[in-house]
From TrEMBL:
<dbReference type="GO" id="GO:0006564">
    <property type="term" value="P:L-serine biosynthetic process"/>
</dbReference>
<dbReference type="Pfam" id="PF00266">
    <property type="entry name" value="Aminotran_5"/>
</dbReference>
<feature type="binding site">
    <location>
        <position position="154"/>
    </location>
    <ligand>
        <name>pyridoxal 5'-phosphate</name>
    </ligand>
</feature>
<dbReference type="InterPro" id="IPR015421">
    <property type="entry name" value="PyrdxlP-dep_Trfase_major"/>
</dbReference>
<feature type="binding site">
    <location>
        <position position="42"/>
    </location>
    <ligand>
        <name>L-glutamate</name>
    </ligand>
</feature>
<feature type="binding site">
    <location>
        <position position="102"/>
    </location>
    <ligand>
        <name>pyridoxal 5'-phosphate</name>
    </ligand>
</feature>
<dbReference type="GO" id="GO:0005737">
    <property type="term" value="C:cytoplasm"/>
</dbReference>
<keyword id="KW-0028">Amino-acid biosynthesis</keyword>
<keyword id="KW-0664">Pyridoxine biosynthesis</keyword>
<dbReference type="GO" id="GO:0004648">
    <property type="term" value="F:O-phospho-L-serine:2-oxoglutarate aminotransferase activity"/>
</dbReference>
<keyword id="KW-0663">Pyridoxal phosphate</keyword>
<comment type="function">
    <text>Catalyzes the reversible conversion of 3-phosphohydroxypyruvate to phosphoserine and of 3-hydroxy-2-oxo-4-phosphonooxybutanoate to phosphohydroxythreonine.</text>
</comment>
<dbReference type="InterPro" id="IPR015422">
    <property type="entry name" value="PyrdxlP-dep_Trfase_small"/>
</dbReference>
<keyword id="KW-0032">Aminotransferase</keyword>
<feature type="binding site">
    <location>
        <position position="197"/>
    </location>
    <ligand>
        <name>pyridoxal 5'-phosphate</name>
    </ligand>
</feature>
<comment type="pathway">
    <text>Cofactor biosynthesis; pyridoxine 5'-phosphate biosynthesis; pyridoxine 5'-phosphate from D-erythrose 4-phosphate: step 3/5.</text>
</comment>
<comment type="subunit">
    <text>Homodimer.</text>
</comment>
Length: 362
């Protein structure tokens, strides 16, 4: 069987060692003769897992003690609604920075719950190259209850690598597609949220990191499942949580620590991205349409600028074990998602295929 590399944008590939451990423990977790999926989330063993997973996540991401960590459901879209329901206060409005599809979707959802201002912070030049044009909002940010942005747009492959300057305002970040890919200063943020299905674990669980002083301000009509204070007070278990997804996240955290922490992860990700972008830079057959300063380390988009060739590329790549390279329907072309779990061998195999395909179809 051909070696398969999964370049899916999400649900994405997970570390092989994590899946192997889950496979080994599937029928007999903690020597209980049962699966982790079958034990009570309020029982001793799962409560110990929940506590340890928070400690490991706090260690690997260097999360200060004045931040709470929630393991929730509903994905990033759920947080599109939960954030304004919990954070809109006396100022009565929020600022949304639009860098692409997902930040735009977050702004659209927030309008159902509060007044917002939205600023497009990207532009496309005459050659179709997309760049982020502004990251300093210190002159206007403090008139808002919070400022929201998406650190990495998975569809276009635009990443905002410089944390926006919002002065003393509350900064909220959707980090669904680049969380745990690099070291960051958590204290720069009031709230961070991320769907798990890129770097954290499987789809079905969502992590929220929220500063303590922002908890307890939810509007009265906020459903309890979206109320951060309620979730904090119930250990993220106001209802039955997605226990298997939580378990897999706990294995990922331990795996990252074992692999050297985020310093080592960041270096590996930089090497993988540099290999692929360097190849694209030197290719006359493929094009990447993102300015170099904003090229995502997680999602690399490219195209032959020919729809028929793009479709042929995806079909032949799939046959060679390079899966899920079709670009998002909004953009087209191809997209290689090279999250933490993608080994460098996968990127090397992709480049070898790209070079062969280019020579055969030039």
């Amino acid at each position: 069987m051909t070696q398969v590399y999964n370049f899916s944008a999400g649900p994405a590939m997970m570390p092989k060692a994590v899946l192997e451990q889950a496979q080994q423990e599937l029928l007999n977790w903690q020597n209980q003769g049962t699966s982790v999926m079958e034990v009570s989330h309020r029982g001793k063993f799962f409560m110990e897992l929940a506590t340890q997973s928070e400690q490991d996540f706090r260690e690997v991401y260097n999360i200060p003690q004045n931040y709470k960590i929630l393991f929730l459901q509903g994905g990033a879209r759920g947080q599109f609604a939960a954030v304004p329901m919990n954070l809109i206060g006396a100022k009565g409005k929020a600022l949304y920075l639009n860098s692409g599809h997902w930040s735009g979707m977050a702004a659209k959802e927030a309008r159902n719950f509060c007044e917002i201002d939205e600023i497009n912070i990207f532009e496309k030049d005459q050659n179709g190259v997309i760049a982020v044009t502004r990251t300093d909002f210190s002159d206007i940010a403090e008139q808002y209850d919070y400022v929201h942005y998406c650190t990495n747009e998975t569809i276009t492959g635009v990443q905002i690598k410089q944390i926006p300057n919002v002065g003393n305002a509350v900064l909220v970040a959707d980090m669904s597609s680049d969380i745990l890919s690099t070291q960051i200063d958590i204290s720069k943020f009031g709230l961070i949220y991320a769907g798990a299905q890129k770097n954290l674990g499987p789809a079905g669980i969502t992590i929220v990191i929220v500063r303590e002083d922002l908890i307890g301000k939810a509007r009265t009509a906020t459903p309890s499942i979206w109320n951060y204070e309620t979730q904090v007070n119930t250990d993220s278990m106001i209802n039955t949580p997605p226990t298997f997804a939580w378990y897999l996240c706990s294995l990922v955290f331990k795996h990252l620590i074992k692999e050297g922490g985020l310093g080592a992860v960041e270096k590996r990700n930089a090497v993988k991205a540099a290999l692929l972008y360097n190849y694209l830079n030197n290719s006359s057959f493929y094009r990447n349409y993102i300015a170099e300063a904003n090229r995502s380390v997680m999602n690399v988009t490219f195209s032959t600028d020919n729809d028929e060739l793009n479709a042929k590329f995806v079909a032949e790549a799939t046959a060679c074990g390079l899966h899920t390279l079709k670009g998002h329907k909004v953009l087209g072309g191809m997209r290689a998602s090279i999250y933490n779990a993608m080994p460098i061998e996968g990127v090397e195999a992709l480049i070898q295929f790209m070079d062969k395909f280019a020579k055969e179809n030039a």
